[in-house]
Amino acid sequence: MTEPTVRVIIEKGIARIEALTADADVEVRDYDVELTPEDHPHLWTDENGRRCARYFVSGGTNTPPARSYAAGLEKLAADMGTFAGVSTSFSPAASEDLLHVLTVNGADFYFGTDGRYDGWGKSIQRSHSPPDA
Fold first, then answer.
1. Model confidence, pTM
2. What is the C-alpha to C-alpha distance for residues 12 and 2, in angstroms, rounded to an integer?
């Protein structure tokens, strides 16, 4: 039998997730949220429009900060699109030394994986070709 890297324990209808190795990275989605208050910090709407409580477990800890910030920004982007009608997208950092990018109406807002706001930028669209030299 192989050694597990993640353990899922279900007792009385409640699942508990344990990461057993440092390199485990688990996304948990609990769709039984009928009685969950709207201000619950992990309440999220998935890519199919279904509500769930979503959190991450990694290396024996509950919700590492980089993933927590990414999940919060992803939820903000989804909520802005759904409830405010604002064109948004989110691109999580590929590693701890890169930046998360929240794009709102074509402007990019950059956030460190530690949650700090780093600044913004917007691509410039040229309406014509530059003059010949």
1. 0.47
2. 27
